[in-house]
Specification:
single chain; mainly alpha; two-stranded parallel sheet; 14 helices
């Protein structure tokens, strides 16, 4: 399916989200032919069952769903336009483009879930809604930046460079020429996850605190592992046993919040020191 047709599909899909009471599911047949087997194909196969279920959602929640999908689809459309409709290896032009992208595809999701939780829990947090939304947005942006940093080399081989490097052709020949720029964004991701840490400790429902702490701790640990690597390479990820360990820390934070000082120091101190270890 050509890029322009994919953009048109996304546009029609979003239109039908806004007009859910009288819309029909978009035709997905042309997309299924080239779609690999997996959860995404399963989702497309069941789209005619999924869309009508939106009618069962409370109107105020349905509006939030439409709003966040608008942002995500905008990010997906920009991705297609920047990387699939142009020949050769392409990159994001500047910092603001990367910040915008991380907001559209992930920061907006942090805002979305915050708004949903504010509707569901009257005393969701001791912080103002405005500050909590900012923290949730930056939390999501940090998680997306981790994906970009982790997949930097593999994305580059596919003609995509999400980091605004200044010497793209040289970087293609030697990935480690981008190390300084890559590290700058790793540090930015740590700052964003610092907002995530503040967010987790500001919300009251223990189960929600646990659900937020798990991806936060996995993200911080992943940044730690990435920072330890002497060279940029694909395939860096934490093990299942490490995930289980981090889940235990998340449980402790959710139900024993007085441990937050120790847990925060343990999590962030190591990750912040990653670049120093990599250059020793």
């Amino acid at each position: 399916m050509v890029p322009r047709s994919r953009i048109e599909f996304l546009t029609q899909f979003l239109k039908q989200i806004y007009e859910i009471d009288r819309a029909n599911a978009p035709e997905v047949g042309p997309f299924l032919e080239k779609q690999a087997e997996g959860p995404e194909k399963t989702l497309l196969l069941n789209i005619k069952r999924i869309l009508p279920s939106l009618r069962l959602i409370a109107p105020e929640h349905r509006g939030l769903v439409a709003e966040v999908l608008c942002q995500i689809i905008r990010g997906q459309t920009l991705d297609i336009e920047r990387f699939e409709m142009r020949a050769g290896i392409q990159k994001l032009p500047d910092d603001s483009s990367l910040v915008e992208y991380t907001y559209l595809v992930a920061g907006s999701v942090g805002e979305f879930w915050t708004r949903v939780c504010l509707l569901e829990w009257r005393h969701y947090s001791h912080l103002s809604a405005a500050k909590l939304l900012r923290l949730g947005r930056e939390f999501g942006q940090g998680l997306q930046l981790i994906n970009i940093l982790r997949d930097f080399s593999s994305d580059l081989h596919q003609g995509r460079c999400y980091l605004p490097v200044g010497n793209l052709e040289e970087v293609v020949a030697d990935l480690n020429l981008a190390r300084a720029e890559w590290e700058r964004w790793r540090q930015r991701a740590l700052v964003y996850l610092g907002s995530g840490w503040e967010y987790v400790n500001a919300i009251r429902p223990p189960l929600v605190r646990f659900a937020c702490a798990v991806p936060l701790f996995i993200g911080v640990h992943t940044l730690d592992l990435l920072g330890r690597e002497a060279r940029l390479r694909p395939g860096v990820k934490i093990t299942r046993s490490e995930v289980k360990h981090l889940v235990c820390w998340a449980l402790a934070l959710a139900w024993l919040p007085f441990l937050k000082g120790y847990i925060g120091w343990r999590m962030f101190q190591k990750a912040a020191a990653g670049d120093a270890r990599a250059t020793m």
